[in-house]
Design a protein that fits this description.
- By secondary structure, this protein is mainly alpha-helical.
- The chain has a single domain, classed as Winged helix-like DNA-binding domain superfamily/Winged helix DNA-binding domain (Arc Repressor Mutant, subunit A).
- Helix content is 59%, strand content 12%.
- It contains 6 helices and 3 strands; from the N terminus they run αααβααββα.
């Protein structure tokens, strides 16, 4: 990975108007922590793979395990995390439980992330 240098100011000068404007619009600390926790869920590649599968189709745990070459137990563990984060939902049809994306926001988040990293 290429080392990236960060440039800093040559003098210490606080721009009070900019600082005040930003402080007035900063979300509360609790909300920022919730947002950070939300994005942490995307920090595990298996969960991203599951979300990518669910972008294509509603599937059951058995299908997910087959598609991703993983055990149902491992898939279930990741689905629990995704469900707690309200990224996926499930529905029961007889003895089968199907999973899908919770809403359209998830598709947007994945799509914009992919767009960003492929630029």
């Amino acid at each position: 990975m290429k080392k990236i240098e960060v440039e800093c100011c040559d003098v210490a000068c606080v721009h009070d108007d900019a600082v005040l404007k930003v402080r007035e619009h900063m979300p509360p600390e609790e909300l920022l922590k919730e947002l950070a926790d939300f994005y942490k869920v995307f920090g595990e590649s298996t969960r991203i793979k599951i979300l990518c599968v669910l972008l294509e189709s509603e599937v059951c745990v058995c299908d997910l395990a087959e598609i991703l070459g993983m055990t149902q137990s491992a898939i279930s563990h990741q689905l629990r995390v995704l469900k707690q984060a309200k990224l996926v939902k499930n529905r029961r049809d007889g003895k089968t439980v199907y999973y899908s994306l919770a809403d359209g926001h998830i598709q947007t988040i994945i799509s914009q992330g992919m767009e960003h990293i492929t630029e």
